[in-house]
Amino acid sequence: MVELRKRKAPAEPAPPAAKKPSSVKSVASKVKEAVTGKGASNGDSIAVGQTIALDGFGGEVETHDGTKTTLKALVDESKGGVVVFTYPKASTPGCTKQACLFRDDYTPLTSTGFSIFGLSSDSPKSNTTFKTKQNLPYTLLCDPNAALIGAIGLKKAPKGTTRGVFVVDKEGKVLAAEPGGPDATIEVVRKLIMGLTSAEAKADEDKGTTTKSSEVEKEIEEGKMNAQEAEQSNGGKMDEDVADVAADVADSAQKLDSNVQA
Fold first, then answer.
1. How many Cβ atoms sit within 10 Å of the Cβ of residue 25?
2. Beta-sheet pairing, 68-70 with 139-142
3. What's the rounded Cα separation, in Å, for the pair 114 and 75?
4. 199 vs 67: CA distance, rounded Å
5. What gap in Å lies between CA 61 and CA 46, rounded to an integer?
6. How far, in Å, CA of 206 to CA of 200, rounded?
7. Would you say 116 and 109 are in contact if contact means Cβ atoms under 8 Å apart?
8. Along the 262 residues of the chain, how does pLDDT read in single tens digits?
């Protein structure tokens, strides 16, 4: 007798995997990072000429002496803005050279009201030792989580700090933001400060020229009025002496005006 074998029932298809619901919070966070540049680890999100919102930018950092602060607080306390140069590790050869270059040029670099800061992920203890040993006249900032370092586009992936420089004025306008070696970073700031100094000097010169021009115009008008008054007091005839004085005043004023315009 032949035994019939039962066929195995076909296996039921596995149910499709449930789609993971998108997180509104996650999407909002990514959009916020794209707008503010806070989630960046390179310089793509920071551009020269861009105005950044200083509130909350880069989170909180600590000075070498243990004081908590923020980029906004540093900008508010400055007269013209802040210069932040980043370095990978305190007391190493390249970082020492960079820090000493900013030390040696400290006076001219701060002449327009900018405050200088060094920034790294080093501890307050390491940065205090670095500052004391090299006799640095500026404050060193400690950013162990690289929050501010990342925000200004100088965080090295996956971990570390890219040497570079970042400059922002009182209004939050980015004047410089780029990586570079010790010499390159200070040269960026030198050229920037030189340009600002020249612009201020030209503005003062233009202001002085405007003032002199106004004084000349006033003197000319006074000379004309004196001549008219003298003519009227003599029945329409101008006394020769008065006429000569009025003419001299007008002539001198016009010469002065020509010198100002030249």
1. 8
2. unpaired
3. 9
4. 35
5. 19
6. 10
7. yes
8. 555 565 666 666 666 665 544 443 443 444 344 333 344 334 447 999 999 999 999 999 999 999 999 999 999 999 999 999 999 999 999 999 999 999 999 999 999 999 999 999 999 999 999 999 999 999 999 999 999 999 999 999 888 999 999 999 999 999 999 999 999 999 999 999 999 888 776 666 666 555 555 665 676 677 667 766 766 666 655 555 555 655 665 566 565 556 555 5
User: Cα separation of 108 and 194, whole Å?
Assistant: 9
This prediction's pTM: 0.65
Question: How big is the CA angle at 121 (ends 41 and 99), to the nearest 5 degrees?
Answer: 105
95 as an active site residue: the answer is: yes
Q: Per the residue annotation, which of 61, 95, 168, 250 is the catalytic one?
A: 95
